[in-house]
Design brief:
By secondary structure, this protein is an alpha+beta fold. It has five helices and 15 strands. β4 and β5 form a beta hairpin. Bound molecules: zinc ion.
Length: about 290
């Protein structure tokens, strides 16, 4: 963090003198980043209280959408039916899907059934059946702010293997979040903990996709890896808003695509994959999960 002159206006736009606003914050970041051999976050990564309110409002809509899906999802419906429900819900709430049209993505949500890791495109040909597991992932844009979350749903009675994978994946997300210690941990600690836990349960972590900053856009810096990397990474500090969204495979971590679809990522070995995702605001003394 570049340290300004005491009398200059603070960079955050508060209109206050730097000395009376973010000066001590910036000094603490520099001190802790040096101590932990971490990178300082950019100023763009640090959201104002007003921005955080905006992100929380987007998260309320996103949460409502996933609750709605939870109440209606069942065997016999198609993944395109879920997409239609979501589009109706967003319209009713004066919100938009950030997924729709993103780099040409054709639908408003992603639906990943069984061996689909992520970015499954809703289709009227994919009919849910008893025993399936499915991830529904959506990023809501509401009044200029973005919130991103996904949940797993189990359709009727599912196998013990599937249930265990879904549960352990949720634990991976929780263990990842528990690494957030403002000023005292860095982004890489999240992935180190997730990979260690997933492996201890006999699972693998998908390496091709990661969590990210979120708020002004769907994807912002920093990248949040879900596997162990020991490269210096960004210090976690109050005001940052990130997603953690581990994709955990029952078998090997490797992925594949099918001809004619560059979006949908499948497990290479055809075994199951699961994912849970939250949008998380880092606070003065910890973090707040704004999705649910
Ligand atoms: Zn300030």
């Amino acid at each position: 963090m570049k340290i300004l002159e005491k009398d200059e206006l603070c960079w955050c736009g508060s209109g206050k003198k730097y000395e009376d606003c973010h000066m001590n914050f910036d000094l603490k970041i520099n001190k802790q980043a040096k101590k932990l051999k971490a990178l300082s976050p950019s100023r763009k990564m640090i959201k104002s209280p007003k921005d955080i309110e905006g992100i929380k409002a987007a998260a309320v809509v996103n949460n409502g959408l996933l609750d709605m899906v939870e109440g209606r999802i069942k065997a016999g419906i198609s993944t395109d039916d879920i997409n239609t429900w979501c589009e109706e819900f967003l319209k009713e709430h004066d919100a938009h899907s950030a997924d729709l049209g993103y780099m040409g993505y054709p639908k408003s949500i992603c639906t990943a059934v069984n061996d689909v890791i992520c970015h499954g495109i809703p289709s009227d040909k994919v009919i849910l059946k008893e025993g399936d597991i499915i991830n529904v992932d959506v990023t809501t844009e509401y009044k200029g702010y973005y919130a991103d979350a996904s949940r797993m749903f189990m359709i009727g009675e599912v196998s013990e293997n599937a249930k265990r994978l879904v549960e352990v994946t949720k634990e991976c997300l929780e263990i990842g979040m528990a690494q957030i210690k403002p000023f005292y941990s860095q982004v890489r600690d999240i992935g180190i903990a997730i990979e260690r836990y997933a492996k201890s349960k006999g699972y693998s972590v998908v390496m091709e996709y990661c969590g990210h900053g979120v708020g002004y856009k769907m994807h912002e810096d920093p990248y949040v890896l879900h596997y162990a990397s020991y490269e210096p990474s960004v210090l976690l500090v109050p005001g940052m808003v990130i997603t953690i969204e581990p994709m955990i495979n029952e078998g090997s971590r490797y992925i594949r695509f099918k001809a004619g679809d560059d979006w949908t990522s499948y497990t290479k070995d055809g075994k199951l994959s699961a994912q849970w995702e939250h949008t998380i605001v880092i606070t003065e003394d910890g973090y707040e999960v704004v999705s649910k």
